[in-house]
Design a protein that fits this description.
Strand content: 25-35%
Order of helices and strands: EEEEHEHHHEEEHHHEHHEEHE
Bound molecules: cytidine-5'-monophosphate
Shape: globular
CATH architecture of the largest domain: 2-Layer Sandwich
Helix content: 25-40%
Radius of gyration: 19 Å
CATH class of the largest domain: Alpha Beta
Largest sheet: 8 strands, mixed
Number of strands: 12
Length: 296
């Protein structure tokens, strides 16, 4: 997450994420699933600006850059508004804000677009409203908003996430990776993706993948890419199977679905190759496709 001050406004680049590994370890009493997942922040990002309002009002203005007819929710349907209201309530501040959101991260895709925007709101408004909250306080508010929000509040490039996703262990060595990322015409809600998922009877460990990626051994790492939610997603939405087949037809090292889908990614040898594959897939009618890199 990049933050820049410009006059009275704070500007934030809120990155999307990919799950390079996701194992469902069990179903919990609270209805969530216990996970072990490797999350990496990528160069695809939404942009948000935050300017203080003279009243306690929270105003959100959305500008879609998705190139599709999908409407970006405003009001309480948007996690950004919920984050701002939660922060107002928690801190007792009577300060308000006008927020502009330029949406580039596709929704219902497993790219955590809503979660990263919410994290941007927590971090930026803590500054704008001069609240001075402790990191643990922000992380606790993040967990109340969604399972992926804490990863972005921590502002680390890559992490192994456990619990329902909110327990973050930073990968403290750089992962320099390139991907082509694509989403079929339809999305899938996170709740739907988890509803029918299968708990792994013999869970795999994320560690071998992390070690191989750190060492840049992509071919070996490709055999460790894993997503427990992929099988269910392909059953719920045949477009996911079709997209994986298309990606596998390209010179990618390996492909997989991210999070609860429906976006999928191909791991690529170089950024240049990722760009070339993205242009080819776009030309062949894949609804949304882009080339991305991990962030340092
Ligand atoms: O936490 P978040 O709001 O992103 O989760 C959306 C839904 O996805 C939850 O209501 C739950 O049904 C499901 N989920 C889950 N286990 C997780 C994360 C999400 O079952 N670890």
């Amino acid at each position: 997450m990049l933050i820049r001050q410009d006059g009275t406004a704070l500007w934030v680049h809120a990155p999307a994420k990919l799950n390079l590994f996701l194992e469902v370890l069990g179903k919990r009493a609270d209805g969530f699933h216990e996970l072990e997942t490797l999350m990496v922040a990528i160069s695809l990002h939404d942009t948000l600006s935050f300017t203080e309002e003279p009243t306690p009002a929270i105003r959100l203005h959305c500008h879609s850059r998705l190139g599709s007819a999908e409407a970006v929710p405003t009001g309480d349907g948007n996690l950004v508004v919920r984050a701002a209201k939660l922060l107002q309530q928690y801190s007792g501040t009577s300060r308000g804000v006008s927020i502009h959101l330029w949406k580039r991260i596709p929704m219902a895709a497993g790219l955590a677009g809503g979660s990263t925007d919410a994290a941007a709101a927590l971090v930026a408004l803590d500054r704008l409203w001069e609240l001075g909250l402790a990191p643990e306080e922000l992380l606790s508010l993040a967990a109340q908003l969604g399972s992926d929000v804490a990863f972005f509040v921590r502002r680390v490039p890559a992490a192994i996430c456990r619990g329902r996703g909110e327990k973050i262990q930073e990968v403290d060595r750089p992962l320099e990776l390139s991907f082509v990322v694509a989403r079929p015409a339809s999305g899938l809600s996170t709740a739907e993706g988890f509803r029918h998922c299968r708990v792994s009877s013999r869970p795999r460990s994320v560690r071998p993948l992390v070690e191989l990626l750190i060492d840049g051994r992509l071919k070996a790492a490709s055999r460790c890419l894993h997503n427990s939610l992929q099988e269910t997603a392909t059953q719920l939405n045949p477009e996911v199977t079709d997209l994986i087949t298309r990606l596998d037809g390209q010179p990618v090292v390996a492909s997989a679905m991210t999070g609860s889908g429906t976006a999928c990614f191909g791991l690529c040898g170089t950024p240049r190759l990722a760009g070339r594959i993205a242009r080819g897939l776009r030309g062949s009618g894949v609804p949304w496709v882009t080339a991305v890199q991990t962030r340092a």
